[in-house]
Amino acid sequence: LLWPVPSTSIGELDSKMAPWGSWANTGVFLRAWDALVKEGKYAKRAWTVKVDADTVFFPSRLLAHALDQGWHGAEPVFVTNVGAYVGPIEVLSAA
User: Fold this and answer.
1) DSSP states of 38-64 as a string?
2) pLDDT in tens, 16-30
3) CA–CA separation, 13 vs 63, rounded Å?
4) What's the CA gap between 55 and 83, in Å, rounded?
5) What pTM, to 2 d.p., does this model score?
6) What was the pLDDT predicted at 52?
7) With the CA atoms of 67, 42, 1 and 86 taken in that order, what torsion angle do they form, in degrees rounded to the nearest 10?
8) DSSP assignment string, 62-95
9) Is the peptide bond before 76 cis (omega within 30 degrees of 0)?
């Protein structure tokens, strides 16, 4: 169920430091989402998870949390720790 985790190459990942002290990496994530949509891999999975490169992520903990919350795929779910599309991890259900 959790393995293998599909991956997609999107090319260069270099980003510059932004004036606010974080990385200006919007272009990298736009290329990533474009590649995922073109390949359609996300459509074959119950969940899509966007994780920053410096984020520690355990798929089994996400699964346990989803089950604890009663997320079984019938309703759409979007989970982030900071706000819409700005955190180091975002989780979207396929529903």
Assistant:
1) HHTGGGGSSEEEEE-TT----HHHHHH
2) 888 877 777 778 888
3) 28
4) 16
5) 0.64
6) 79
7) -50
8) HHHHHHHHT--SSS--EEESSSTTTSSEEEEE--
9) no
